[in-house]
Amino acid sequence: MGLERAKIVALYARYLDRCNEHRFDQLGDFVCEQVSGSGATDGLAGYIDRLETVHTAFPDYRWELQDLVVEQDMIAARLIGQGTHTGPFDGMAPTGRRISTQELVIYRFADGKIVQCWGDFFPVVRDAMMAAADAER
């Protein structure tokens, strides 16, 4: 049985708060152990590892929810993210550049947790970093 819309919205808001607070050890409250999606590694540990990679490279990175569409057990979230590149990311040395991204992520929920997640964060960040470098030239 699916969650009510209001419960999914509230759950996602709490999840996003934990991500922005870098409290990844609490994501098991929101994401199932067997989560799958667009990442190279499935499972909660791989999911958290990808978020920790972001935090290492962009310690001040924050996501801000712009739009949220809820349809039964799925949501689509349009997010704006900002952070400063002070750590290694995807083979790139720290640049000190501040980037801004726009990202679309689709989630599927079951039993009150995220069971699937499809997003394009890493390509979006790479594009934003290239744009920031081009703007400096």
TrEMBL record:
Q: Which residues form a coiled coil?
A: none
* Classification via InterPro entries: Cyclase_SnoaL-like, NTF2-like_dom_sf
Output the Pfam families linked to this UniProt entry: SnoaL (PF07366)
Give GO BP annotations, semicolon-separated: polyketide metabolic process
The superkingdom of the source organism is Bacteria
Q: What PANTHER family does this protein's entry cite?
A: ESTER CYCLASE, POLYKETIDE CYCLASE SNOAL-LIKE DOMAIN
Q: What is this protein called?
A: Putative ester cyclase
